Amino acid sequence: MALLHCAKIQVDSVYSRAVLTFLKRLMSITGMSEQWVAARIKQKGDNKCISWRNLKDIVLAHPDTKKRVDVSALSIYALVVFPKALGHVDEAVTDLFNRLDKGVTPVPAILAETFRSLSACWRTGEERFIGCA
């Protein structure tokens, strides 16, 4: 909670999808311009994403310390909790991450996605957990 700056979590509010576009969410989280973000968004399968390397550049060079911490936290959150596209941060992760600033707890969504992924692994007979589906 300290890493994500979410001390005031609303326990009675659950995660729901916001209406901001991927581009707008990335602009808000990173503090970068629309042109910068638009040039770095890629399509991976059915999802839009941004490369971890692009976010690493922000962490190393952004003048605003809060933005550097936010981008670091987003990267950890995406690469560890929801590793869908190797080396990339997925659109769904930025949506969930963006909701943290509004005090909405992501715990029910994380538990539901984990349960769904574990159930899918069990049904297909796979022996490993691949993160959220």
From TrEMBL:
Pfam families: DUF7745 (PF24924)
Superkingdom classification of source: Eukaryota
Domain (DUF7745) ranges: 23-132
Annotated PANTHER family: AMINOTRANSFERASE-LIKE PLANT MOBILE DOMAIN-CONTAINING PROTEIN (PTHR48200:SF1), PROTEIN, PUTATIVE-RELATED (PTHR48200)
Protein name per the record: DUF7745 domain-containing protein
Annotated organism of origin: Gossypium klotzschianum
